[in-house]
Design goal:
The chain has 250 residues and is an alpha/beta fold. The protein has a single domain, classed as Rossmann fold, CATH 3.40.50.720. 46% of the residues lie in helices and 15% in strands. It has 8 helices and 7 strands; from the N terminus they run βαβαβαβαβαβαααβ. Helix 2 links the parallel strand 2 and strand 3. Helix 4 packs parallel to helix 5. The termini are far apart.
């Protein structure tokens, strides 16, 4: 068991990559805080994991809710060893077409959320003698994509912030890395499939982004997060690990 007796806080853990990571962590011996803005989803995941998990409602862009989330993790499980900053969302728009409110919302959740969660979780991780922070960046941190200006900016910021955090806390025993997923099958895309004129063609287009000609699965990313959270990656910090089916190798 790679995470035996470790306590992990995972944001956005009610579905997708976060859910897959929570389940994998428990299999590997961890106790997990399943945090999500949608408490019903969080409770469903936590119920499946039993006594090894608790559900916490939190908006990662809200300082008071983030503080309460970290406090609950520590009070319930006795400490904190791992933080996975997974919560995030994207929206369409260029710098011309985006309104300021939407821009702020995307930046707040995807980038400010990483800042706030790390700000309050890292001191607790240090108190336990060190541990790991894993941030979810994206392949668009490297290559960009049209009509996603706010999301590209936010995820680029996550990649850069990861490097800064790694340098700041290396001597505290806290390793900080990021994962850059490619196109991953999720409820996000399921909803899009319901709205596009030709779901089959749309899905084929997503699959064609990868030389492997397929979408990834949440567990593909969860496996990398596990690696970075465990001692298997003890000499890795300040790095971004790309898991995109070869998309950025084109």
């Amino acid at each position: 068991m790679k995470l035996k007796n470790q306590v992990a806080l995972i944001t956005g853990a009610g579905a997708g990559i976060g859910e897959a990571t929570a389940k994998l962590f428990v299999q590997e011996g961890a106790k997990v805080v399943v945090a999500d803005r949608n408490i019903d989803l969080a409770r469903k995941v936590a119920a499946e994991l039993g006594e090894h998990a608790i559900a916490v409602e939190a908006d990662v862009a809200n300082t008071e809710q983030v503080k309460a989330m970290v406090d609950q993790a520590v009070s319930h499980f006795g400490g904190l060893d791992i933080l996975v900053n997974n919560a995030g969302f994207g929206t369409l728009g260029t710098v011309v077409t985006l309104d300021e409110e939407t821009w702020d919302s995307v930046i707040d959740v995807n980038l400010k959320g990483v800042f706030l969660c790390s700000k309050y979780a890292i001191p607790e991780i240090i108190r336990r003698g060190g541990g790991a922070v894993v941030n979810l960046a994206s392949t668009i941190s490297v290559v960009g994509i049209k009509d996603r200006a706010a999301y590209v900016a936010a995820k680029g910021g996550v990649a850069a912030l990861t490097r800064a955090m790694a340098l700041d806390h290396a001597l505290d025993g806290v390793r900080v890395n990021s994962v850059a997923p490619g196109v991953i099958a999720s409820s996000y895309y399921d909803k899009i499939f319901e709205t596009v004129a030709d779901p089959v063609a749309f899905k084929k287009g997503l699959e064609a982004r990868s030389p492997l000609n397929k979408m990834g699965e949440p567990v593909d990313i969860a496996n990398m997060i596990l690696f970075l959270a465990s001692k298997d990656s003890s000499f890795a910090t300040g790095a971004m690990f790309t898991v995109d089916g070869g998309y950025t190798a084109w």
